[in-house]
TrEMBL record:
<dbReference type="GO" id="GO:0032259">
    <property type="term" value="P:methylation"/>
</dbReference>
<keyword id="KW-0808">Transferase</keyword>
<dbReference type="Pfam" id="PF07942">
    <property type="entry name" value="CARME"/>
</dbReference>
<protein>
    <recommendedName>
        <fullName>carnosine N-methyltransferase</fullName>
        <ecNumber>2.1.1.22</ecNumber>
    </recommendedName>
</protein>
<dbReference type="InterPro" id="IPR029063">
    <property type="entry name" value="SAM-dependent_MTases_sf"/>
</dbReference>
<dbReference type="InterPro" id="IPR012901">
    <property type="entry name" value="CARME"/>
</dbReference>
<comment type="similarity">
    <text>Belongs to the carnosine N-methyltransferase family.</text>
</comment>
<dbReference type="GO" id="GO:0030735">
    <property type="term" value="F:carnosine N-methyltransferase activity"/>
</dbReference>
<keyword id="KW-0949">S-adenosyl-L-methionine</keyword>
<keyword id="KW-0489">Methyltransferase</keyword>
Length: 500
């Protein structure tokens, strides 16, 4: 007789757990959005710090730097332009969850320790949940969902096979993408004080309502929904701005040629006769801001990028789905460091983005970005033997357990499938002092030995010198001697024959 009550209690507990998980996701997403929104204030504090140091100089020294007050004003102007891009990006963002819900009703130790995003190591990145597509649909997927191919389209699906309900249809891949691009968005009280635009860029809206103020301010961007975030969160925003140059600016072409070009050439050599009716499938884990995945798609592959960073996904969605023309935006990516600058002009120089219009790039139908943790998403049984190629670029060292990455890559590749890798072994969790983070840090020799145990055989291997999101005009250039290889997964029949 007590069974119904027990069942009701279990249902209530499951419902509570789902609400708790959703509240955790909302709080995490609010923190990420708040980091973007706090960018202008945090940057202003930096400029004020520069000004305080300048004012401490003795008069004779200060006279030698009489141009500094103007430089500080120019810095503020550049910050305002970066903020203009950020706020337009956030205005276009459509959260997968109700951002206005009260997360405090479930406030407990779990919420206090809610995950924010992955860690940025030096100039490297990683982490996320939103999914984008420049062709087909934009969809959102949680970590327990897998992204799979169906016909010619790659869509995000839950394990039970039901399509995710939260989708936004987008127009064809060879035409301008339908957008909700707002003319501008600025938080209350945000002001632009410069009279003259010395560097070019987009029109600026002032705080008195003059100019292109958007009339459709997103409710969840209201200050009452924002969180106080540590400065390290805002540092991630600055890192994103630098990463935009790597993927979406003409200035980043040299670095893209170093990292992406060898991969694209290898794909072309391995798949010379790509048919439009049956294009090969390619997965790009750690896709970042999406340029490599887009370039692969443009070369006749059904390509899916996977990214774990919500910071990255919000930005890549905006560039891929909302951009209307090449060079539509102007940012100032190098203003946040006064070190190793050849001149103020170098530090304050503008960068136009994107260098191409993504929707007009000629992508192959089925191109998508799938959000979520690589291990959780692609461990799903539906992913076994799905992909012709897996491309990893500056990705495999983001693992807690790199052996698990290798195992999953082997499982999701078809027999005879190819794994192309480019990158160093700067393990992201190697120096997490004081935190009990698992980190398996293999040498390249050990990594290759493990790969052989998972059925891979080497077809090509060399070393490529490259940088990562580096200011090309900086006096300091961090260089990697990145491992580049092509491995092929042996077919099951061939492997059995070789062991018999």
């Amino acid at each position: 007789m007590s069974t119904p009550r027990v069942g009701e209690e279990e249902d209530e507990e499951r419902h509570r757990q789902r609400k708790l998980e959703e509240a955790l996701e909302v709080k995490s997403l609010r923190r990420i959005v708040s980091a973007y929104l706090n960018y202008p204030d945090a940057s202003e504090e930096d400029v004020k710090r520069y000004e305080r140091s300048y004012k401490k100089l003795p008069p004779t020294h200060k006279a030698l730097l009489s141009h500094y007050p103007l430089k500080f004003q120019r810095l503020r102007w550049c910050i305002s332009r970066n903020a203009y891009f950020i706020f337009n990006m956030l205005q276009a963002f459509e959260p997968p969850l109700d951002m206005s819900q009260d997360v405090h009703i479930f406030e407990d130790s779990h919420l206090q320790n809610s995950p924010n995003d992955h860690f940025f190591v030096g100039e490297r990145n990683a982490c996320s949940l939103q999914s984008t597509s420049t062709s087909g649909s934009l969809c959102f997927t949680k970590n327990d969902q897998a992204c799979s191919g169906e016909g010619g389209n790659v869509i995000c699906k839950s394990p039970n096979g039901a399509n995710n309900n939260e989708e936004m249809e987008i127009e064809g891949h060879n035409e301008a993408i339908t957008t909700r691009h707002p003319p501008g968005l600025h938080p209350p009280g945000f002001k632009y004080n410069e009279e003259i635009d010395k560097y070019g860029g987009n029109d600026v809206t002032d705080s008195n309502g003059k100019g292109n103020v958007s009339s459709s301010f997103q409710e969840w961007l209201d200050p009452s929904f924002q969180l106080n975030v540590p400065l390290v969160d805002v540092d991630k925003v600055r890192c994103i701005i630098r990463n935009i140059v790597r993927d979406w600016a003409a200035e980043g072409k040299k670095e893209r040629d170093q990292c992406y070009k060898p991969i694209l050439e290898e794909l072309n050599a391995l798949f010379p006769n790509r048919e439009k009716d049956s294009p090969p499938s390619c997965l790009v884990p750690g896709a970042g801001l999406g340029r490599l995945a887009l370039e692969i798609s443009c070369r006749g592959f059904i390509c899916q990028g996977n990214e774990f960073s919500y910071h990255m996904m919000i930005c890549s969605s905006f560039i891929l789905n909302q951009t209307q023309t090449a060079g539509e935006w102007t940012i100032y990516p190098w203003i946040h460091s006064n070190c190793n600058s050849l001149s103020d002009g170098d530090q304050l120089r503008p960068v136009s983005i994107p260098d191409i219009h993504p929707a007009s790039a000629g992508i192959t139908e089925g191109f998508s970005m799938c959000g979520g943790d690589f291990v959780e998403v692609y461990s799903d049984p539906s992913q076994v033997g799905v992909w012709d190629v897996v491309v990893t670029c500056f990705f495999i060292d983001t693992a807690h357990n790199i052996i698990e990455y290798i195992e999953i890559i082997s499982k999701i590749l078809k027999d005879g499938g190819v794994w192309i890798n480019m990158g160093p072994l700067l393990y992201h969790f190697a120096d997490m002092y004081g935190q009990d983070e698992m980190s398996i840090e293999l040498s390249l020799e050990d990594l290759k030995r493990v790969a052989l145990q998972y059925g891979f055989q080497f077809e090509k291997e060399n070393t490529i010198e490259t940088t990562y999101a580096t200011n090309p005009r900086s006096m300091m250039q961090n260089r990697y001697f990145a491992a580049f290889w092509t491995m092929r997964k042996k077919s099951a029949a061939r492997e059995e024959h070789s062991t018999s």
